[in-house]
Structures are given as structure tokens and as C-alpha cells.
Backbone:
């Protein structure tokens, strides 16, 4: 989806009530089947049509018919490459060739996000392209364990910091295979290289090829700082204004880990209360200065803004808001607690935003409704 199309979608979302939203590009279309034995063809067609229109069990926001189109496209693409494919509901199992034993799993999270941005007639080409890239990356790793295709200077000049979406990686795997990753406000930040339309994350086993963790981080940060940030888009007015920077590269969100450099690059001087930051998707970062005029409602507005931005993204990252002020670390300004969504700003900032006597350690209902 191009920038103009994304902006039109966002404008419609902002004007529409929260309960009226539906994924972009989502249209009901059934999968044609043969009439069931012993049932009149018209009755069978009616039953199939009704079944296809029901919500799919494994793909939220998709009907059974739409999910069937995606699954069928993935299986056809896998089989076209010479491998066996088995539908497991929430993923496709790939076996054959180097994919021995339990085989490999192809999930639907990225495909579903891409499909929401496209008309159904374009799903087949999108699915085929996605499967080919994923299989190619898996084949490289399986044929040469630990290989990224580059080493030394060639690898370092391609590195960039990249967040690992918590919902996309098992915590055990993250803890065991990415011990070098850094925590930024609760989000794990790793290192990656870009290949075509996919990113390959570096695991611990790859760091030696880059000269070690220290050299890898130094190179990745230098590459990030040398890259452009893009043009800003301002949403809202006055103290409620949110400035969004977005591009087509997943390094954009990584600026969250380097707020001082980011603000200096965009020419924003933070006040004593600092700034609110958000990364709705890997290719986006948004900022809102905190001033004496800021209120809890500004936090609520930014949460709602994040939700709209991330809803149609291929690589969503976090619905939360983060806080930074000079001299301190990046921290999560909103977190999910057992009792619900909580506002977790530093006390001095909390008192300025919510009032000294408010006791606002939990986010009001207006904010909770925004996430």
C-alpha cells in the first residue's frame, strides 16, 4: 500500500467510530465447492456460502472463505517449490528436502497483515512472493548453519538495529538464542540485515562473523545514524500534536533506542518533562513533546493514534506509549497490569500530567478505551 492510500485509510479511520472499523481490503468471498451428496445443489451452495462467511477459527478478522484462500495460496506456493505442505490451521507444515523430521512451520501473521492491505485478487501473487522469500531464507540457513551470506566488513556495513516484536518470537527462544539483545522500554532490540523484502535477524551464533557483539552494535548504530529519517507528518494541533516519521525500512522504529540522537536529528528540543514516543510498526516512530499543558487525555489520544497506525501494518510492533527525558532511559509510559492498563510515567511527570492530587496511577477509562 502506497503512502497516499495509507493516509486515506487513516483519515477514514480517524473519522469513524471505533466500533465501525474493519480491516482494509476485507471482503467476503466464498470458496466454490461441489454440492454435498444427497443435497440439492442450491441448498449445498447456500450452506457453503453461509459457512464461508463465518469467522475463521485461526485468523482473526477473516472469514473461513478468506482464510481458505490464504491457506490454499500458501500450500500451492510451497508445492510449486517442490516441497510437501500440510494445513495445520494456524500454520502450514513444510516437509521434504532439508526440512526433515517435524519440518518447518509457515505462520500467517505477516501474510494476514499484508492481505488486509490488498484486494483478494492480489492475494495469490503476494502469497507466492512471500513464501518464496521465506523458503529461500530458510534454505540458506539450513544448508550453511550460522551463515548469513556475509562476514566481516561486508556484514557490518549491512547491519542495522531492529526491534523484535514480542508477539512474534517465543520468549524462551529469545532468551536462549538472542542473549546479546538489548531491552528498550520492554521491547527487545536486536541486529539484522535486509534482504529483498525480508529482514534476517542475527542470533548469537552470527556475532563472530561481524567481529563480536561490540563491533556489530557499533556498525549497526553507525548505519542507522547515516540513514535518513524521512519527512514528518503532523497529526493534531497545539500541545496535542503528534509528529509521525515513517519509511519503508524496518529500521525506523529503532530510533526509539536512541532518543537523544533522534530528537537532535529532527530539531526538537525536549523540555524538562521530556517527550512521549511510540513505535506502532517497525517502519514508524512518532513523537509528542510533553509540556505544562499536557494532560492524561494527550496520552489517550496518542494510544488511539497508535492503534489506527498499526492496524493496517504488515509489521506491527507495539500499541504502547514510551517516555524519555534527558538524562534518563526510555521507559514504557503505559503497561498492562493485572488490574488493567496502567500509566507508568515517572512521579514528577505523572503529577504534571494528571495533577498532584489525582492519584492517577491507573489510566482512566478514556485511556483504556484507546488501546
Residues:
Amino acid at each position: 500500500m502506497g503512502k497516499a492510500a495509507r493516509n486515506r485509510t487513516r483519515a477514514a479511520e480517524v473519522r469513524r467510530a471505533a466500533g465501525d472499523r474493519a480491516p482494509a481490503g476485507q471482503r467476503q468471498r466464498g470458496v466454490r465447492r461441489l454440492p454435498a451428496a444427497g443435497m440439492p445443489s442450491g441448498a449445498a451452495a447456500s450452506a457453503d456460502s453461509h459457512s464461508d462467511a463465518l469467522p475463521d477459527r485461526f485468523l482473526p478478522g477473516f472469514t473461513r472463505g478468506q482464510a481458505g484462500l490464504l491457506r490454499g495460496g500458501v500450500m500451492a506456493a510451497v508445492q510449486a517449490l517442490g516441497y510437501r505442505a500440510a494445513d495445520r490451521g494456524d500454520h502450514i507444515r513444510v516437509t521434504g528436502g532439508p526440512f526433515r523430521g517435524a519440518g518447518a512451520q509457515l505462520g500467517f501473521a505477516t501474510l494476514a497483515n499484508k492481505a488486509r492491505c490488498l484486494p483478494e485478487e492480489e492475494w495469490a501473487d503476494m502469497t507466492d512472493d512471500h513464501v518464496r522469500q521465506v523458503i529461500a531464507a530458510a534454505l540458506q540457513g539450513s544448508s550453511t548453519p550460522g551463515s548469513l551470506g556475509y562476514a566481516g566488513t561486508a556484514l557490518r556495513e549491512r547491519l542495522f538495529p531492529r526491534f523484535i516484536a514480542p508477539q512474534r518470537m517465543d520468549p524462551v527462544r529469545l532468551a536462549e538464542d538472542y542473549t546479546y539483545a538489548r531491552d528498550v522500554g520492554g521491547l527487545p532490540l536486536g541486529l539484522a540485515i535486509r534482504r529483498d523484502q525480508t529482514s534476517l535477524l542475527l542470533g548469537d551464533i552470527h556475532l563472530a562473523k561481524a567481529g563480536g557483539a561490540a563491533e556489530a552494535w557499533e556498525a549497526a548504530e553507525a548505519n542507522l545514524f547515516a540513514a535518513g529519517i524521512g519527512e514528518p507528518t503532523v497529526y493534531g494541533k497545539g500541545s496535542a500534536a503528534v509528529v509521525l516519521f515513517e519509511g519503508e525500512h524496518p529500521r525506523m522504529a529503532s530510533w526509539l533506542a536512541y532518543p537523544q540522537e533522534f530528537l537532535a536529528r529532527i530539531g526538537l528540543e525536549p523540555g524538562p518533562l521530556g517527550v512521549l514516543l511510540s513505535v506502532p510498526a517497525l517502519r514508524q516512530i512518532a513523537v509528542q513533546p510533553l509540556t505544562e499543558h499536557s494532560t492524561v487525555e494527550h496520552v489517550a489520544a496518542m494510544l488511539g493514534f497508535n492503534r489506527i497506525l498499526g492496524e493496517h501494518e504488515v509489521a506491527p510492533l507495539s500499541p504502547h506509549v514510551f517516555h524519555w527525558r534527558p538524562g534518563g532511559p526510555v521507559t514504557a509510559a503505559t503497561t498492562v497490569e493485572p488490574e488493567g492498563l496502567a500509566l507508568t510515567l515517572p512521579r514528577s511527570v505523572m503529577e504534571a500530567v494528571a495533577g498532584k492530587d489525582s492519584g492517577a496511577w491507573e489510566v482512566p477509562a478514556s485511556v483504556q478505551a484507546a488501546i
Notes: The chain has a mean pLDDT of 78. The longest strand covers residues 99-107. The CA atoms of residues 23 and 311 lie 8 Å apart. Residues 232-368 form one domain.
